[in-house]
Design goal:
mainly beta; two-stranded antiparallel sheet; elongated
């Protein structure tokens, strides 16, 4: 009987515990509200383009122009571009097509840019801008009736039409053979460097060069070390006024005061070397890569 009594007590305790759990369940109801977080990210865009802005014709122009197209586009840079050749004019029927030929690269002074010139108007140099779907701009600088020792300087502005600040990451000569490398490759250069280019067959490139020093000789037939020859290099090219890391902010107001940071100016000098052949087509291609400002990487030389 004592054992049975013990079982009875156990049964009562279990019943009490079960009842207590039931009471708790009835006494506390679950009131709840769910809060959600939804993320929405609207990305900006990168859109660097050659500007076609002509704000004050004759005094401030962002559209590309040269110092031998016969028109004073910017009085600070090509003030004497309407000066026809005193001794000879190749284009008498079209006085605004060209001017007295440059004999050296245009150079910047506190009073403006200066272009040394000959007394003859033989060649001309013009610019055009091509755009593919508004995404990839190409600036074409064309020399007509060029000859050895002829120079042309072309100016341009790059404007940021996107919504994200940009920095100049690299400048590249496309499809060239630097020295004895096998085949064509893209060669990163510094904007301030002069490079010699041979466009006959495989496009050779040599540099950087001093602007006053002729392109060196190339003689690969003697079986000796690689040397150079003036007869082989056709052009010397130079991109200036730009530096790697230059930043352009999204487009703001237009004007000659570049305080808005929305554009940067550059120029390219082209010199016809002694290796240029008669009745030839000499071509090269430079590429500028602009990246979002926080992804810019310093170039290690």
């Amino acid at each position: 009987m004592k054992e049975l009594a013990g079982f009875a007590k156990l049964g009562i305790i279990l019943m009490v515990l079960t009842s207590a759990v039931a009471v708790i369940g009835l006494g506390f109801g679950l009131w709840a509200q769910v809060l959600s977080v939804q993320g929405v990210v609207e990305t900006g865009d990168v859109a660097a383009q050659f500007s076609n802005v002509v704000l004050y014709e004759g005094s401030y122009v962002e559209a590309p122009f040269t110092n031998d197209d016969g028109v004073v586009d910017d009085s600070f840079k090509d003030v004497d571009d309407d000066n026809q050749g005193e001794e000879f004019d190749m284009w008498p029927g079209n006085p605004t097509s060209s001017s007295a030929d440059p004999s050296g690269p245009a150079s910047s002074t506190p009073d403006g840019w200066v272009t040394p010139r000959t007394l003859k108007d033989v060649a001309m140099c013009t610019t055009t801008k091509d755009s593919v779907d508004g995404l990839h701009d190409t600036l074409r600088v064309k020399v007509v009736n060029g000859y050895p020792s002829y120079w042309c300087t072309a100016w341009f502005h790059v404007r940021n039409y996107g919504s994200v600040p940009l920095k100049l990451q690299r400048v590249t000569l496309l499809g060239v053979n630097p020295g004895m490398a096998d085949g064509e490759q893209d060669l990163d250069i510094s904007p301030s460097e002069y490079w010699c280019i041979d466009t006959d067959g495989l496009t050779d490139a040599f540099g950087p060069m001093d602007p006053e020093v002729p392109c060196p000789e190339m003689d690969m037939d003697d079986g000796g070390p690689f040397t150079q020859s003036p007869e082989d290099y056709d052009l010397k090219v130079h991109l200036s006024e730009l530096e790697l890391g230059d930043q352009i902010d999204p487009t703001g107001s237009y004007g000659p005061d570049r305080g808005d940071g929305a554009n940067v100016q550059g120029n390219i000098d082209i010199h016809v070397e002694q290796g240029a052949q008669q009745d030839d087509m000499l071509e090269f291609e430079l590429e500028m890569q602009w990246v979002q400002w926080n992804e810019y990487e310093e170039r290690g030389d």
